[in-house]
TrEMBL record:
Upper lineage: Bacteria, Bacillati, Bacillota, Bacilli, Bacillales
Name the record gives this protein: Preprotein translocase subunit YajC
Any GO CC annotation of this UniProt entry: plasma membrane
Keywords for the protein's UniProt record, in alphabetical order: Cell membrane, Membrane, Protein transport, Translocation, Transmembrane, Transmembrane helix, Transport
Source organism: Gracilibacillus halotolerans
InterPro entries (UniProt xref): Preprotein_translocase_YajC
Domain of life: Bacteria
UniProt-listed Pfam families: YajC
Topology of the protein relative to the lipid bilayer: Single-pass membrane protein
């Protein structure tokens, strides 16, 4: 019994460390991003994953129309929104 514990103990410890240091924080961040993307509203100022800054003009199921500062309308997938800018 001790040989099994001595063999698999370090492996189990490594799995737990990976879970709490890598996997769990990544899952929490993904959940926050999904919640932010689902709570977008018309008029929110956002930044896309490509660095485009704009204002939400219209929202569809999976598509968002952004209004640029020069009045141009650009269509993006909802998943391309990186963050909401507070200004």
């Amino acid at each position: 019994m001790e040989a099994i514990l001595a063999t698999f103990g370090p492996l189990l410890l490594m799995v737990l460390i990976f879970y709490f240091l890598l996997i769990r924080p990544q899952q929490k961040k993904q959940k926050q991003v999904r919640e932010m993307q689902s709570s977008l509203q018309k008029g929110d100022k956002i930044v896309t994953i490509g660095g485009f800054h704009g204002t939400v003009h219209a929202i569809d199921e999976d598509v968002i129309v952004l209004l640029a500062t020069d009045g141009a309308k650009v269509t993006y997938d909802r998943s391309a929104i990186a963050r909401v800018v507070q200004s």
